[in-house]
Amino acid sequence: MIRFEHVGKRYDGGYEALQDLSFQLVQGELAFLTGPSGAGKSTLLRLIALLERPSRGHIRVADIDLSRLRRRHIPYLRRRVGMIFQDHRLLHDRTVFDNVALPLIINGIADHREISRRVRAALDKVGLLGREKYYPVTLSGGEQQRVGIARAVVTRPPILLADEPTGNLDPALSGEIMQLFIEFNRVGVTTLIASHDMELVGRLGFRRIGLLDGRLASDLAAGEAA
Amino acid sequence: MKRPTARPSRGAARRGHGGLARLRAGLSAWAIAHGRALVSSLGRLVSMPLSALMTVGVLAISLALPALFLLLLQNVERLSADWDRGASLSVFLDLSVEESRVQSLADELAQSPPVQAATIISPDQALADFRRMAGMDEALDLLDDNPLPAVIVLIPDPGLGAEGLQALGAEVQAADGVDSVRLDLAWVERLQSISDLLRRAVWLIAALLGLTVVLVVGNTIRLAIQNRREEIVIAKLIGATDGFIRRPFLYEGLWYGALGGLTSAVLVGGVRLALDGPASELARLYQTGPILVGPGLGGFGLLCLVGIGLGLTGSWLAVGRHLAAIEPK
Ligand SMILES: Nc1ncnc2c1ncn2[C@@H]1O[C@H](COP(=O)(O)OP(=O)(O)O)[C@@H](O)[C@H]1O
Ligand SMILES: [Mg+2]
């Protein structure tokens, strides 16, 4: 589903954020991307959604060779990749409902009832049903992150990417958020979650891809000890 | 896994059976998406009424001024065409020309294409006219002979214009027995060159003010793009196409243009109404037809269309220039 072949990423200014990185995620897999701050986790996720182009190597996502994907097709790739950010990236002048409905509208869904039904279903999954009319600032950090997750899954994308989704949350809330991802993964969504919280990630027992200074440092299968 | 093909609606429509129904659904989704953008961009204007009103006001004045100048120009041209009709050529014949020759010359001239009518003023008639003028009677009694020549007054075809009149005059001048031709041309020419000058000035001003409209809308949309930068970034992150992101801004420009055009039409109508009284008073004094005419419903409609066109142009330029620079990071 996601395949990196000798991928390198050099930022303008010459910094090598990723070097000769190869790995693969099969369909329906859940993996954590671990490593200290600055290891290149965010860069890797951004390459998958084509927020950046690799400097070297090839990336395939859902059988698409990203190096061959033309600019005008990028939006259609991003619709298949639900993205979740540490800072939520919600629209603060829109209600929870409008935030979660945005991907549906972008996807060209016009039927009001269908939009309403799917937004409610997504909010229900993240435990926020009844908060449709709230504005994001009136919600707690954990709740805002749930809205971000609802927005990412409302179009039922086959791939979910999360960049430090629990970075600002306390351990209990972090665990709950991770459980949400595990549930989505259970229904077949290929999921890749970047986190530097080794302790939390280790406890969950999934595959862990470890980065260090832009290189693959370890790749531990589910259940394998560090 | 399928490749991300075209938009779901279009891609679906192309695929085999049930195609027509899907096409219809796709079309209605397309129409709904555009309708949504149209309404929401108007909603944004309404949500900041003060700045929107000021922008619309600037646009309205920028559109109304050239419209008023054009209206003025139109009326000057119409009036000068009217006055052209009053132009005539007085053909003074040699004193030696016989009366019969006068008649045949008049007939000949009347036959030539640019002449509508030829009237003879015989020396006797001219003298009689002269006598009628106060104080001339005694003076004329002193003369033995009638000193006045025969005159043929030519009425040219309307719309002949100054050059046509001049050519006609030269032609007549060359005819046998003609002493001199007097053209009452000076004022026709003057009027024409004034309206030429006016026309050029008005179009220049119109072009400049049109450019003003484009720039004002462009700048307004540029600010709107800046204000909604975060929203644009997020929309791109979750797969919005350039078209989707462009649309509300283009419609915003369209609304500015339309509202500016509409308001300018009201302004022009108001000015027109305010000038109506004095204009008809002037017409009464000079006993002419109506002095101020137009612009009519078509003119008002055109004003709105021009506003929409310029508004769209302005927003198109701003969108092309500033949207591409915003990429999610
Ligand atoms: N846009 C950028 N331009 C230049 N350097 C960057 C950019 N983004 C990230 N980097 C650098 O690349 C390295 C990896 O960053 P990042 O992928 O954010 O790591 P992580 O998410 O693991 O903390 C860091 O040293 C960072 O400074
Ligand atoms: Mg990071």
SSE string of chain B, helices as H and strands as E: HHHEHEHHEHEHHHH
Strand order, sheet with most strands of chain B: 2-3-1-4
Structural class of chain A: alpha/beta
Structural class of chain B: alpha+beta
Regions with little confidence, pLDDT below 50 for 5+ residues of chain A = none
Main β-sheet, spatial strand arrangement of chain A: 6-7-8-3-9-10
Q: Major β-sheet of chain A, in short?
A: 6 strands, mixed
**What is the number of helices of chain B?**
11
- Principal-axis shape of chain B equals elongated
Task: Determine the fraction of residues in helical runs of chain B and give it as a percent range.
Answer: over 70%
Summarize the structure.
Chain A has helices at 41-48, 74-78, 96-106, 112-125, 141-153, 171-186, 198-204; strands at 2-10, 16-25, 30-34, 56-61, 64-65, 81-84, 159-163, 190-194, 207-212, 215-220.
Topology summary:
The complex is a heterodimer of chains A (226) and B (329).
Chain A lengths: L1 E9 L5 E10 L4 E5 L6 H8 L7 E6 L2 E2 L8 H5 L2 E4 L11 H11 L5 H14 L15 H13 L5 E5 L7 H16 L3 E5 L3 H7 L2 E6 L2 E6 L6
Parallel strand pairs in A: 3-8, 3-9, 6-7, 7-8
Antiparallel strand pairs in A: 1-2, 1-4, 4-5, 9-10
Helix pairs in contact in A: 3-4, 3-5, 4-5
Chain B lengths: L7 H7 L4 H29 L1 H36 L4 E5 L5 H13 L3 E7 L1 H10 L3 H6 L9 E6 L4 H13 L4 E6 L2 H42 L1 H9 L4 H45 L9 H27 L7
Antiparallel strand pairs in B: 1-3, 1-4, 2-3
The complex binds adenosine-5'-diphosphate and magnesium ion.
Adenosine-5'-diphosphate binds next to α1 of chain A.
